[in-house]
């Protein structure tokens, strides 16, 4: 929040209220089943996962997993490009 507040010349509390309000609006929209797109950042969507038979990792026994709704995120083109550039810079600076 500090970076955003400094960049915009706003107080941290004002930025916090704006960001929390934005997250609340996004969450409410997703709860209603709508998709939310932030241009160049990405898209949040709600998808239905069908019921299935899973496995208990300890016992290996089959366990029914009920149908449910999940939030998915697909990064936008600009975000992908920026992350790829940052990743290549870090790799050059700190080779494994």
List keywords for this structure.
96 residues; alpha+beta; HU Protein, Chain A; 2 domains; three-stranded antiparallel beta sheet; two-stranded antiparallel ribbon; extended
What's the structural blueprint in terms of helices and strands?
Layout lengths: L1 H7 L3 H20 L4 E3 L3 E8 L2 E4 L6 E4 L2 E8 L1 H17 L3
Antiparallel strand pairs: 1-2, 2-5, 3-4
Bin the strand percentage. 25-35%
Which shape, going by the Cα principal axes?
A: extended
What is the ordering of alpha helices and beta strands? Answer: HHEEEEEH
| Cα separation of the termini | 31 Å
Q: Write down the CATH topology of the largest domain.
A: HU Protein, Chain A
Structural class: alpha+beta
From the 3D coordinates, which CATH architecture of the largest domain would you assign? Irregular
Helicity level: 40-55%
Spatial order of the strands in the main sheet?
1-2-5
What is the total tally of β strands?
Answer: 5
* Number of separate domains: 2
Assembly state (oligomeric) = single chain
By CATH reckoning, the class of the largest domain would read Few Secondary Structures
Radius of gyration, whole Å: 20 Å
- Provide a count of the helices: 3
For the largest beta-sheet, the strand count, sense and barrel status come to: 3 strands, antiparallel
Query: Which blocks of ≥5 consecutive residues have pLDDT under 50?
Result: none
Average predicted local confidence, pLDDT:
90
Could you state the CATH homologous superfamily of the largest domain? Answer: IHF-like DNA-binding proteins
């Amino acid at each position: 929040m500090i970076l955003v507040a400094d960049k915009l010349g706003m107080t941290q509390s004002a930025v916090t209220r704006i960001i929390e309000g934005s997250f609340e609006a996004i969450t409410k929209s997703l709860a209603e089943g709508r998709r939310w797109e932030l241009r160049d950042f990405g898209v949040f969507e709600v998808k239905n996962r069908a019921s299935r038979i899973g496995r208990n990792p300890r016992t290996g026994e089959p366990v029914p997993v009920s149908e449910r709704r999940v939030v998915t995120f697909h990064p936008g083109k600009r975000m992908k490009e920026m992350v790829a550039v940052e990743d290549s810079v870090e790799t050059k600076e700190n080779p494994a």
